[in-house]
C-alpha cells in the first residue's frame, strides 16, 4: 500500500472527448497500427528474401522501416489501453521510459537517413570507390551507431530527469514527449543545456550533413548527362521526401510542444496523430512505390496473392 502511495501518476490530457468516441478512436487506431506493422514488415521481408536487394541502400531502408515499427509499438499499445480506460494516466517512471524510447528512435531515424544520404553520395559521386567504402563491416557500424548513439546520449537525460521534483501532474499530449519538462517545479538548467547539446548532436548536425551530401549529388548530377541525372533523381527523391516529411514533424515537436503555448487542443491532437499515424505509413508507401526494385518485387507478391 505504501509503495502505491509513493508512485507518481501523470495524467495525459491531450485526449478530446474520449468518453464519447472511445470505441471509434480504438477501432481507427488499432486498424492503423496493424497497417503500420503489415506495410513495413512486408517490405522488410521482401528485402530479406530477395538477394538482389542485399545492398547497402536497401539494408538501410529495411532498418528505417524496422525503426518505424518499433517507434509505433512504443506508443500504440498504451494509446489503445487509454482509449478503453476511464482515466488516461501513466506512472512517471513509465512516462520517462516512453519519452526515452520515443526520442531514441526518432533521432535514430535521422542518423539512418544520414547513412542513406552518405550511401547515395558515395554511389553517385565516387562510384569506383563504392565497393571499398560501403563494405558489409562499415554498413554494420553505421546501423549499430544509428541506434546506439542516441540511446546512450538520451540515457543521461533520463538520469537527470529522475530526481527532479514535480509540481504538475498533467501533460498536454497523448503520450510522453518533451512536454515532460513542464512537469518540473523549477526548469533544470542542466537538463536544458544537455537537451540543446543532444538536439544539435543527433538532430541538427545529421540534418546539415544530409543537406551537404545531397547538394554535392545535385552539383555532380547537374554537370553530368541526362541519363545520369534521371538515375540520381530516381534513387534520391524517395529519401528526400521521407527526410522532408520527418523534419516537419520533428520541428513541430521541438517548437510547439516545448513552447507550451495556448495551442488549440484540436490542432494539437491532429498534429500528434499525424506524427504517429501518417509518418510510419509514409515510409513504406514511398519506398514501395518509388524504389524501382522494391516496387517490382511488391507487384510480383501482389500478383501471386491474387492468383491464389
Automatic annotation (TrEMBL):
Top-level taxon of the source organism: Eukaryota
One annotated GO molecular function: G protein-coupled receptor activity
Membrane-crossing residue ranges in chain numbering: 23-49, 56-76, 96-118, 139-162, 191-215, 236-257, 269-289
SUPFAM superfamilies given in the database record: Family A G protein-coupled receptor-like (SSF81321)
GO cellular component, one term: plasma membrane
Keywords attached to this entry: Cell membrane, Disulfide bond, G-protein coupled receptor, Glycoprotein, Membrane, Olfaction, Receptor, Sensory transduction, Transducer, Transmembrane, Transmembrane helix
Ranges for domain G-protein coupled receptors family 1 profile: 39-287
Listed InterPro entries: GPCR1_Superfamily_Member (IPR052921), GPCR_Rhodpsn (IPR000276), GPCR_Rhodpsn_7TM (IPR017452), Olfact_rcpt (IPR000725)
Topology of this chain in the membrane: Multi-pass membrane protein
Gene3D superfamilies, per database record: Rhodopsin 7-helix transmembrane proteins (1.20.1070.10)
Family under the similarity heading: Belongs to the G-protein coupled receptor 1 family.
Protein name stated in the entry: Olfactory receptor
Amino acid at each position: 500500500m505504501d509503495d502505491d502511495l509513493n508512485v507518481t501518476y501523470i495524467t495525459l490530457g491531450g485526449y478530446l472527448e474520449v468518453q464519447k468516441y472511445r470505441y471509434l478512436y480504438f477501432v481507427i487506431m488499432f486498424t492503423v497500427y496493424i497497417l503500420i506493422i503489415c506495410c513495413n514488415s512486408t517490405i522488410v521481408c521482401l528485402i530479406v528474401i530477395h538477394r538482389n536487394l542485399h545492398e547497402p541502400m536497401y539494408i538501410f531502408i529495411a532498418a528505417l522501416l524496422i525503426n518505424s515499427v518499433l517507434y509505433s509499438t512504443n506508443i500504440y499499445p498504451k494509446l489503445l489501453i487509454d482509449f478503453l480506460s476511464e482515466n488516461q494516466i501513466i506512472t512517471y517512471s513509465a512516462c520517462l521510459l516512453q519519452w526515452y524510447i520515443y526520442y531514441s528512435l526518432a533521432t535514430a531515424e535521422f542518423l539512418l537517413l544520414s547513412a542513406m544520404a552518405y550511401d547515395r553520395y558515395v554511389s553517385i559521386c565516387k562510384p569506383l570507390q563504392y565497393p571499398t567504402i560501403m563494405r558489409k563491416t562499415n554498413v554494420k557500424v553505421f546501423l549499430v551507431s544509428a541506434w546506439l548513439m542516441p540511446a546512450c546520449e538520451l540515457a543521461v537525460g533520463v538520469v537527470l530527469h529522475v530526481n527532479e521534483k514535480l509540481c504538475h501532474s498533467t501533460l498536454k499530449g497523448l503520450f510522453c514527449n518533451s512536454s515532460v519538462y513542464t512537469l518540473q517545479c523549477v526548469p533544470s538548467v542542466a537538463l536544458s543545456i544537455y537537451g540543446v547539446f543532444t538536439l544539435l548532436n543527433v538532430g541538427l548536425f545529421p540534418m546539415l550533413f544530409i543537406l551537404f551530401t545531397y547538394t554535392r549529388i545535385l552539383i555532380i548530377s547537374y554537370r553530368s548527362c541526362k541519363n545520369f541525372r534521371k538515375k540520381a533523381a530516381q534513387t534520391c527523391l524517395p529519401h528526400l521526401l521521407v527526410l522532408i516529411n520527418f523534419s516537419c514533424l520533428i520541428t513541430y515537436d521541438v517548437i510547439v510542444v516545448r513552447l507550451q503555448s495556448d495551442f488549440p487542443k484540436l490542432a494539437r491532437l491532429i498534429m500528434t496523430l499525424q506524427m504517429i499515424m501518417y509518418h510510419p505509413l509514409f515510409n513504406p508507401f514511398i519506398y514501395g512505390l518509388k524504389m524501382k526494385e522494391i516496387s517490382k518485387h511488391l507487384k510480383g507478391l501482389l500478383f501471386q496473392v491474387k492468383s491464389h
